Amino acid sequence: MAPIRLEPLCEAHLPGLEEMLTDDGVLRFTRVPEPVPPGFAKTWLGSYEAARREGTREAFAIVDADEATFLGIALAVQIKREEQSVELGYVVAPPARGRGVATEGLRLLTEWAFAELDALRIELWIDVVNEPSKRVAEHCGYVREGVLRSVYFKQGRRHDFEIWSRLPTD
Fold first, then answer.
1. Lowest mean pLDDT: which of 13-27, 62-76, 111-125, 146-160?
2. Does residue 62 lie within any of the structural domains?
3. Checking CA distances to 104, which of 123, 132, 138, 148 falls within 20 to 30 Å?
4. CA 26/CA 132 separation, integer angstroms
5. Sign of torsion, CA 130 32 124 101?
6. What is the 3-state secondary structure (H, E, C) of the chain?
7. β-sheet bridge partners, residue 70
8. Does 36 fall in a domain?
9. If phi over 0 gives left and psi between -120 and 50 gives alpha, with beta otherwise, what is residue 55?
10. How does pLDDT run across 117-131, given as a tens digit for each residue?
11. Long-range contact list for 46-55, CB < 8 A, 24+ apart?
12. Is residue 141 a part of any domain in this protein?
């Protein structure tokens, strides 16, 4: 795999993000509404930029370190500074899958959360049927804690999520 890096998500990444949001796999395993509303990527980016200023969320583009090609996103979905906890997430664009991008992206994001946020607990919420994402979590040293049954509602259906976590001592 070519080296990757994380850079703050910005308008320059919108074409890659919009393309990624046309993938059924991305829609199936994310909280993105279906069908994707017109202008969703730009509105979503704006909400993350506002949350970045507030310190409550962060969004990074995963890019090829050499060519800056958009490969996906790495997110701090929820930052709880007082509790020193954070929920992370990651999505890889279809052309970049199967190359270790998600694993390396999560590794970099985890390092960032421990170093920059001084996190004492990091969580991943993974749909119980998303086996590739669970493998990524395991490769990055996350521990499966259990299942939250019927915790998320999307498109008229309820979903179960597994909770995976990392502590600085892991």
1. 146-160
2. yes
3. 148
4. 12
5. positive
6. CCCEEEEECCHHHHHHHHHHCCCHHHHHHCCCCCCCCCCHHHHHHHHHHHHHHHCCCEEEEEEECCCCCEEEEEEEEEEECCCCEEEEEEEECHHHCCCCHHHHHHHHHHHHHHHHCCCCEEEEEEECCCHHHHHHHHHCCCEEEEEEEEEEEECCEEEEEEEEEECCCC
7. 63
8. yes
9. left
10. 999 999 999 999 999
11. 48/9, 48/75, 49/10, 52/8, 55/79, 55/81
12. no
Instruction: Give the domain extent around 25.
Output: 4-120
Report residue 153's pLDDT band, with 50, 70 and 90 as the boundaries.
low
Determine the Cα–Cα distance for residues 121 and 60; give it in Å rounded to an integer.
20
Two tokens, residue 85 = 């906890």
As a whole number of Å, the CA-based R_g of the chain is 15
Residue 66 lies in a domain: yes
pLDDT score for 27: 76
- How many separate domains does the chain show? 1
Q: What is the pLDDT of residues 39-94, one digit of tens each?
A: 999 999 999 999 999 999 999 999 998 888 999 999 999 999 999 999 999 999 99
Pairing status of strand 121-127 against strand 85-92: parallel
Cα separation, 68 vs 18, in Å, equals 17
CATH number of the domain that 78 lies in? 3.40.630.30
Q: Please check the confidence at residue 142 and state whether its pLDDT lies above 70.
A: yes
